[in-house]
Amino acid sequence: MPVVCHRSRISDDRFVVHKVKDFSITTNFDCGDLDLNEFFQTDAANYRSELLAETYTLYLKGYRKLGPLAFVALANDVIKLSKPQKRKFIHHQKRYLKEYPGVKIARLGVDKQYQRFGVGTQFLNLLKAFFTTDNRTGCRFMTVDAYNDEKAPIFYEKNEFDFLHDKDASDRTRIMFYDLKRFVAT
Ligand SMILES: CC(C)(COP(=O)(O)OP(=O)(O)OC[C@H]1O[C@@H](n2cnc3c(N)ncnc32)[C@H](O)[C@@H]1OP(=O)(O)O)[C@@H](O)C(=O)NCCC(=O)NCCS
Fold first, then answer.
1. What is the rounded distance in angstroms from the CA atom of residue 145 to the CA atom of residue 152?
2. Which amino acid residue places its CA nearest to atom 35 of ligand 1?
3. How far is the CA of 35 from the centre of ligand 1 (A)?
4. Per-residue pLDDT tens for 47-91?
5. What integer best gives the mean pLDDT of the chain?
């Protein structure tokens, strides 16, 4: 079944992503990272009311009783590209722009019991489709400050994200980005 995209919801034949309406569904969420659990359980609603981030959840279609498999918080972003990156990504005109618009994965967590089954990858694929369908504003890149640990950068690289630069190679997080135009072209 093709991807079906609405204003605050997107689905394919297996998964449904929709905006969280009632944050009580985050109560038992455990992705194995205390900061992320706490963000979704206690901070995400305030981020919404302050217009700082919107939280979405992923369900297995037809298995709502299983509960949410994953959560993501999203915010607007801009990135600066180096000259070689501009040459690589921005064809023809518009290389003079100082910054390029994007959507930032502010937080992402997959429930511990569903990790390593491709859930995070499917979530990202639906979000890539979401932000290349009927956008209200230009949105060229998907970005993330990935935990600089032994799994997050591998996960994002596997999902075709690149490191923005090497300046943050020893920091706690690293900026990574994905060119949504690649997704449109496939
Ligand atoms: C990182 C996270 C989102 C990945 O979600 P997931 O559903 O488990 O990921 P997928 O099953 O789609 O994995 C895709 C690929 O990413 C890589 N990957 C995922 N988890 C990994 C891990 N624990 N160690 C090493 N590589 C990993 C693998 O290459 C994997 O492919 P493979 O299983 O074929 O080898 C999830 O583990 C999570 O929520 N972790 C805790 C919170 C966190 O770290 N969030 C990211 C913050 S930036």
1. 10
2. 116
3. 17
4. 999 999 999 999 999 999 999 999 999 999 999 999 999 989 988
5. 95
Q: Domain limits of the chain?
A: 4-185
Cα separation, 45 vs 24, whole angstroms: 10
Distance 122 CA to ligand 1 centre (A): 11
Mutation test of ligand 1: which of 37, 39, 107, 116 has the most ligand atoms closer than 8 Å to its C-beta? Answer: 116
**Partner residues linked to 11 by β-bridges:** 4, 16
pTM higher than 0.90 for the full model? yes
Nearest CA-CA partner of 126 in 6, 20, 28, 24: 6
CA-to-CA distance for 29 and 32, rounded, in angstroms? 9
115 lines ligand 1 (CB under 6 A): yes
Considering the four listed CATH numbers 1.25.40.10, 3.40.630.30, 3.40.50.2000, 1.20.1050.10, the one that applies to the domain covering 4-185 is 3.40.630.30
